[in-house]
Amino acid sequence: MHSMMEHPGGNASSAQSIWHWLQQESQGYRHTSHPATLSPLLARLIVGEPSLEHALASLLASKLADTVVAQARLKSVLLELSAQFPDIIESSAADLSASVARDPACHSPVVAFLFFKGFHATQAHRFAHALWKLRDELTASWIQSRCSALFGVDIHPAAVLGDGIFIDHATGIVIGETAVIGSQVSLLHGVTLGGTGKEAGDRHPKVGHRVLISANATVLGNIRIGDGARIGACSVVLKDVPPFATVVGNPATLLPAREYQNPASLAGANPT
Q: What domains can be seen in the chain, in order of their start residue?
């Protein structure tokens, strides 16, 4: 299968390019994997769909539907939202590209698209956020609840996420209502972007671009994490973090300056 460096479609984060890549990789899997096992899944969720937005709607509907909300109806709602908010699909393409580029265990967009619950939870949130903006808080909250139950990821529908978000493993992720996350950010499992419990209103962290937040780190309060910052595993961050800084510990303290152009791309290596 293609590595990220071998991606044939030019701009790796464009929806059309990513869709072409998914189709190519799916055809390769259909010829190399056990047909009786994988072909029906690929046919239903990727090969048989006309576009990335249809494939994503099929995927999420198959994951989120329950005994009350039917899969076909949910797919229709997601497609309507895709048409109304086309940025959702471009953001999803960037997220999928980021998952393959930053996860050393992932060698194919097909694997990330079909099986990575961090990707699934992020995409479901993008639709929930669109519903929240349309003031359909009930449906948005239902999606949040399903993601929490199915993926172990709890992102409030009002939280704002940039493009190219990579959530690795995903279990235990909590992102609060007024949190804002910039583009090209990597979050490892167990990360909390929460409130301190001592304030109301705008009470959650604001995370800049190209930030790495390592496993089980806790970031609390309406504080700012600067562009290019790195937060070490199990750190507890209660104060602003300057751009391109590295913080570790409980409470988190600054480490000596190190040069990282894009810390979020180093998601496989926690700072120590």
A: 1-152 (1.10.3130.10), 172-272 (2.160.10.10)
The pLDDT score that the predictor gives to residue 37 is 79
Centre a 10 Å sphere on the Cβ of residue 48 and count the other Cβ atoms it contains.
13
Rounded to the nearest integer, the mean pLDDT of the chain is: 90
What number is the average pLDDT over the span 82-107? 96
pLDDT at 50 over 80: yes
Q: What's the chain look like in SS3?
A: CCCHHHCCCCCCCCHHHHHHHHHHHHHHHHHHCCHHHHHHHHHHHHHCCCCHHHHHHHHHHHHHCCCCCCHHHHHHHHHHHHHHCCHHHHHHHHHHHHHHHHCCCCCCHHHHHHHCHHHHHHHHHHHHHHHHHCCCHHHHHHHHHHHHHHHCEEECCCCEECCCCEECCCCCEEECCCCEECCCCEECCCCEEECCCCCCCCCCCEECCCCEECCCCEEECCCEECCCCEECCCCEECCCECCCCEEECCCCEECCCCCCCCHHHHCCCCCC
pLDDT at 79 over 80: yes
Q: How far apart (Å, rounded) are the C-alpha atoms in residues 58 and 56?
A: 5
Residue 194 has pLDDT above 90, yes or no: yes
Which residues, 6+ apart, have CB-to-CB distance to 86 below 8 Å? none
> What pTM did the predictor assign?
0.89
pLDDT over 70, % of the chain: 88
Asked if the model's pLDDT at residue 263 lies above 70, the reply is no
Maximum Cα interatomic distance, the chain, rounded to a whole number of Å = 57
